[in-house]
């Protein structure tokens, strides 16, 4: 077992063991700075868990597609001719060139610009120039690498990058009841329309953003807009499986202004806040151990005035920018090597404590599986056909040279 990861999991010595004795202490700084931990999260979390991505309103017409990425995995969502929303890795099956190069578009077919391989909106291979002359080439086995897609009760689109025919984790296992919360009854998601997207690049770990979102302990000192959206004295969070429900009372004045808010965080990296005039999907997208981007898809009620929409849209933009300031400075101190962790309040920081517990449990469980298997386990990785014996030998040879990422102490 790699010594660094032994320490992360509290197995490397007395100091690590002491940290584990206090249930209220936060995850240590190393979990927010380590390249090894980031790579483990890619395997244990982002290639296994269901990820909230967008809303079906963004894929309204046949051929509409959107490109997304998370933790180094890039994929495409599109609506096919039967009205289904499909998902595929943005990887040509031939030589791994991206199938699409833009962020969004509308197409009749996906054509790789490298060698001209083309695919239907359902991901099936349509044309591979020259390969029709090969007797043993099977078009049916060379479509785009699929990902799992689910549309929930309210029209939100989820993906799971697990490469198996059926994902190891069922959506219901983490999110049963998350899309049928009673408080959603006052909103009709069909009355909204996509308005715009905006992004903030950030020099901090994605988990810092999640910790920050999931508590309002800092709201009174940082966010002057929040009292207009919620009664801070009544603020609470409820945790269940893979989601964290945020709740606060709404005054009659707030309700009259269309500021009745329902906020939910969905593990690992997404949330949405909905009001009568507006909702947005927020995704914390990691690109390294100390860098990420905050990506927002904003939708407005079709019947709302510009004034009503801009009131809440402007509030949330200010709040998110204020959070970025906090998180950037926190990461700088975590990087310095001085701070290990601090105690967190069991009630006021119940949300981040629960989030961190889910992170800890998820990565430790996956890492134990890897130790038992004596190799890294990448759920999203392509499965090779039984006939690819030479490729398997090549993989084993390379692994023996430790030329795979993070192979210290692991043997294929």
TrEMBL record:
Name by which UniProt lists this protein: Choline monooxygenase, chloroplastic
Native source organism of the sequence: Lithohypha guttulata
Function according to Swiss-Prot or TrEMBL: Catalyzes the first step of the osmoprotectant glycine betaine synthesis.
Ranges for domain Rieske: 50-134
Pathway involvement of the protein, from the record: Amine and polyamine biosynthesis; betaine biosynthesis via choline pathway; betaine aldehyde from choline (monooxygenase route): step 1/1
Domain of life: Eukaryota
EC number, UniProt record: 1.14.15.7
Family, similarity comment: Belongs to the choline monooxygenase family.
């Amino acid at each position: 077992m790699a010594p660094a990861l032994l320490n992360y999991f509290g197995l490397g010595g007395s100091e690590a063991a002491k940290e584990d004795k206090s249930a209220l202490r936060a995850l240590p700084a190393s979990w927010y700075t380590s390249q090894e931990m980031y790579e483990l999260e890619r395997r244990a979390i982002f290639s296994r868990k269901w990820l909230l991505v967008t809303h079906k309103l963004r894929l309204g017409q046949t051929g509409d597609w959107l490109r997304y990425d998370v933790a180094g995995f890039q994929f495409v969502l599109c609506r096919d001719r039967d009205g289904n929303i499909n998902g595929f890795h943005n990887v040509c099956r031939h030589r791994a060139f991206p199938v699409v190069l833009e962020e969004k578009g509308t197409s009749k077919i996906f054509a790789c610009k490298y060698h001209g391989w083309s695919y239907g909106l359902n991901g099936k291979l349509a044309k591979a120039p020259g390969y029709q002359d090969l007797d043993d080439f099977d078009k049916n086995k060379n479509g785009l690498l699929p990902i799992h897609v689910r549309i929930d009760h309210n029209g939100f689109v989820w993906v799971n990058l697990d490469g198996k025919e059926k994902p190891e984790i069922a959506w219901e296992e983490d999110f049963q009841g998350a899309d049928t919360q009673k408080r959603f009854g006052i909103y009709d998601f069909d009355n909204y329309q996509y308005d715009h997207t905006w992004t903030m690049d950030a020099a901090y770990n994605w988990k810092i953003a999640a910790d920050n979102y999931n508590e309002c302990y800092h709201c009174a000192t940082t966010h002057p807009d929040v009292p207009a959206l919620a009664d801070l004295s009544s603020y609470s969070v409820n945790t269940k499986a893979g989601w964290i429900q945020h709740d606060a009372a709404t005054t009659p004045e707030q309700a009259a202004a269309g500021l009745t808010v329902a906020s939910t965080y969905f593990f690992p990296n997404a949330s949405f806040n909905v009001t009568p005039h507006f909702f947005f999907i927020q995704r914390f997208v990691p690109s390294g151990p100390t860098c990420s981007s905050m990506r927002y898809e904003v939708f407005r009620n079709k019947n709302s005035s510009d004034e009503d929409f801009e009131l809440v849209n402007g509030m949330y933009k200010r709040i998110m920018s204020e959070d970025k300031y906090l998180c950037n400075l926190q990461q700088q101190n975590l990087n310095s090597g001085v701070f290990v962790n601090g105690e967190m309040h069991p009630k006021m920081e119940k949300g981040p404590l629960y989030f961190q517990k889910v992170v800890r449990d998820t990565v430790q469980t996956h890492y134990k599986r890897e130790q038992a298997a004596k190799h890294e386990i990448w759920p999203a990785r392509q499965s090779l056909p039984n006939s690819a014996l030479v490729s398997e030998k090549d993989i084993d040879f390379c692994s023996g040279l430790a030329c795979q990422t993070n192979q210290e102490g692991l043997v294929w």
